[in-house]
């Protein structure tokens, strides 16, 4: 199989039912879908039956890298996992950092497709061209981190391992997959991996990635370093007295210069990651219980990673459990959970173990909060309010705060964090400056410049109005899908604002120029976005075939229209840029139902879809070179 610049040339295919190992030529998909989410979605469309369930052998786990993976200095070594999710039995996805994707590419594979189901526990061993399915009985019941350490010790330092914990083995619907650097992938993919009876995938490679134009790429690397806004140290909630161990920056393979990712090493205990929501999801409750800052929030995160549970889903589950306990719906005796000790290490460890091993009431909770509420009954579902989105995660950067993000939430099969970040990250920096917390260049003028260059109009950066938000949403989606094909990291890309430009507005053309330098294939900014639009429409077609039928399913959780926004983390009045760039408080606001529907009308027009139904039009897909997809949808009555 021919090797091309930016690619290894092969996608590994492993059928766990038969033990057969085969390959696709990457070229079959790369010219049309580039990599990452693009190739993953194309394989899913071609090979996963619409009627298959998440835990059926016919579901396929597709693990894909992009053409920038394995190249240093680009923050491009993210990698994608996709398949049908047990959350809703529809296509979903996640992506991870660390070095596992780069190692897979160095071993000679741009991706890995896992199908079928093994009749006994196995792990996949990949050592360049040597590929084996090995017995994993000795690993069963073991934590994901311990599994990684054990297999990595056997393979050596230049290897990487991804694995699942007991939650994945026992098919908890919000089970995660964990790789090196404690990178974790959600959307229930750990449960899908467990359903296939595969515990881990260990990979070692000695290859490299060929680059078409090293000189040009070197120049672009320097530009990236000049323009990139350097993220600060993640604000720890560990007090100096609690920090008996050490916080240390943790940089993924091929990064530009790091981000907020850190590790923490408690005294006498294993190191674990400390960053973002997972670092603090248990912090407030632990502080209330102990009366001071402790290491307990770190241990809670560490337990979730090792047992393999999504902290975002667990955080909202705890909120629901507390409400059920206070309402008298659940008791300690019925559940065997020590509700009187919520916030303690004892409570969180017992909850995690019960869910992960499906013991007692944990068997109910392993189905996710929404299903658990159905099982518990007693109107416990009414206690699920504005803290949880329909896929069980905590709401972040929602449309009551940033209007544009409503379209993202309505159309994606999971929390669309990459799209949310493009809108919220500059908004957060702007708000922090306005509140006087930092001295920063991101003024209202810069926000309007971002709106004009990245989102289609200056008014797109005015969050007091619905005007301009439909166009902004489509532009963000096209760019973020292109980003998910390369695949590059959220903490660097897109460079939307910069200390290194005269107007402090970033440069959205960098990704296409880097792609061209690496692959040698001509690529413009608009050409890259066209690929993003193609893959976005392909995913829309997949979801339509699997049950997401246009306008009637492009909806928000009801609380967005009825529950006033209470504020935002670190931004109590929820201020955003308003008319003329003046601060506008969205505290107390809801989404206007009529305006949201009008925004959908405008959005469907921009996309070239049918406004009345929200279904794709045949000519739209044909223009995107998806004629075969259009024909398939036409036979099923899913296109106009």
Question: Would you give an account of this structure?
Answer:
There is one protein chain. The protein has 25 helices and 17 strands. It has 640 residues and is of the alpha+beta class. The strands form five sheets. A six-stranded mixed β-sheet has the order 2-1-6-3-4-5. A four-stranded mixed β-sheet has the order 8-7-12-9. The chain has a three-stranded antiparallel β-sheet with strand order 13-14-15. A hairpin with a 2-residue loop joins strand 7 and strand 8. The longest helix is centred in the C-terminal third of the chain and has 21 residues, at 525-545. The mean pLDDT is 95.
Throw out a few tags for this protein.
12% strand; six-stranded mixed beta sheet; 17 strands; 39% helix; alpha+beta; 640 residues; single chain
Chain-wise SSE layout:
Elements: E1 10-15, E2 21-25, H1 27-33, H2 36-47, E3 61-64, E4 79-85, E5 90-96, H3 100-106, E6 111-115, E7 122-127, E8 130-135, H4 144-155, E9 159-163, H5 166-169, E10 177-178, E11 184-185, H6 189-195, E12 198-204, H7 214-227, E13 246-249, E14 262-265, E15 272-274, H8 276-280, H9 283-290, H10 296-307, H11 311-326, H12 332-335, H13 345-356, H14 362-365, H15 369-376, H16 405-411, H17 417-434, H18 444-454, H19 469-486, H20 510-519, H21 525-545, H22 559-562, E16 575-577, E17 583-585, H23 593-607, H24 618-623, H25 627-635
Parallel strand pairs: 1-6, 7-12
Antiparallel strand pairs: 1-2, 3-4, 3-6, 4-5, 7-8, 9-12, 10-11, 13-14, 14-15, 16-17
């Amino acid at each position: 199989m021919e090797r091309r610049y930016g690619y290894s040339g092969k996608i590994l295919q492993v059928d766990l039912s038969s033990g057969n190992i085969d390959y696709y030529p990457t070229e079959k998909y790369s010219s049309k879908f580039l990599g990452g989410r693009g190739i993953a979605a194309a394989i899913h469309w071609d090979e996963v039956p619409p009627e298959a369930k998440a835990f059926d052998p016919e579901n396929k786990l597709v693990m894909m890298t992009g053409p920038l993976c394995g190249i240093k200095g680009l923050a491009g070594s993210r990698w994608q996992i996709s398949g049908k999710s047990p959350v809703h039995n529809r296509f979903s996805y996640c992506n991870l950092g660390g070095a596992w994707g780069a190692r897979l590419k160095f071993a000679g594979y741009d991706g890995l497709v896992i199908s079928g189901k093994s009749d006994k526990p196995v792990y996949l061993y990949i050592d360049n061209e040597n590929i084996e399915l090995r017995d994993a009985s000795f690993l069963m019941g073991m934590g994901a981190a311990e599994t990684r350490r054990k297999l990595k010790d056997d393979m050596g330092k230049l290897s990487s391992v991804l694995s699942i914990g007991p939650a994945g083995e026992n098919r908890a619907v919000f089970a995660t997959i964990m790789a090196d650097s404690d990178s974790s992938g959600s959307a229930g993919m750990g449960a899908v991996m467990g359903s296939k009876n595969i515990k881990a995938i260990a990979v070692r490679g000695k290859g490299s990635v060929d680059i078409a134009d090293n000189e040009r790429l070197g120049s672009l690397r320097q530009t990236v370093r000049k323009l990139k806004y350097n993220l600060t140290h993640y604000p720890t909630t560990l007090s100096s007295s609690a920090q008996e161990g050490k916080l240390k920056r943790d940089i993924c393979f091929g990064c530009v210069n790091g981000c907020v990712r850190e590790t923490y090493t408690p005294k006498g205990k294993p190191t674990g990651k400390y960053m973002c929501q997972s670092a603090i999801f248990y912090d407030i409750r632990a502080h209330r219980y102990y009366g001071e800052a402790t290491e307990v929030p770190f241990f809670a995160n560490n337990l979730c990673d090792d047992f393999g549970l999504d902290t975002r889903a667990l955080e909202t589950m705890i909120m629901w459990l507390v409400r059920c306990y206070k309402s008298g719906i659940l008791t300690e005796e019925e559940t065997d959970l020590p509700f009187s000790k919520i916030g303690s290490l004892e409570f969180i460890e017992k909850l995690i173990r019960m869910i992960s091993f499906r013991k007692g009431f944990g068997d109910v909770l392993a189905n996710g909060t929404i299903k658990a509420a159905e099982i518990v009954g007693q109107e416990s579902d009414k206690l699920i309010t504005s803290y949880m989105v329909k896929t069980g995660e905590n709401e972040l950067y929602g449309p009551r705060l940033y209007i544009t993000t409503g379209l993202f939430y309505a159309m994606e099969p999971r929390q669309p964090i990459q799209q949310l970040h493009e809108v919220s990250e500059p908004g957060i920096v702007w708000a922090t400056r306005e509140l006087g917390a930092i001295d920063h260049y991101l003024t209202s003028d810069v926000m309007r410049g971002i709106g004009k260059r990245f989102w289609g109009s200056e008014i797109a950066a005015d969050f007091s109005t619905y005007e301009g938000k439909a166009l902004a949403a489509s532009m963000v989606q096209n760019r973020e899908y292109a980003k998910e094909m390369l695949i590059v990291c959220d903490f660097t890309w897109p460079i939307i604002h910069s200390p290194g430009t005269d107007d402090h507005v970033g440069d959205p053309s960098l990704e296409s120029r880097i792609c061209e330098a690496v692959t040698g294939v001509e690529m413009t900014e608009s050409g890259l976005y066209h690929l993003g639009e193609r893959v976005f429409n392909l995913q829309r077609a997949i979801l339509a075939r699997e049950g997401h039928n246009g306008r009637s399913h492009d909806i928000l959780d009801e609380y967005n229209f009825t529950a006033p926004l209470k504020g935002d983390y670190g931004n109590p009045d929820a201020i955003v840029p308003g008319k003329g760039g003046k601060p506008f408080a969205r505290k107390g606001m809801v989404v206007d139902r009529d305006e949201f529907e009008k925004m959908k009308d405008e959005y469907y027009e921009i996309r070239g879809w049918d406004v009345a139904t929200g279904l794709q039009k045949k000519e739209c897909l044909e223009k995107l070179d998806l004629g075969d997809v259009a024909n398939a949808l036409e036979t099923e009555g899913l296109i106009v």
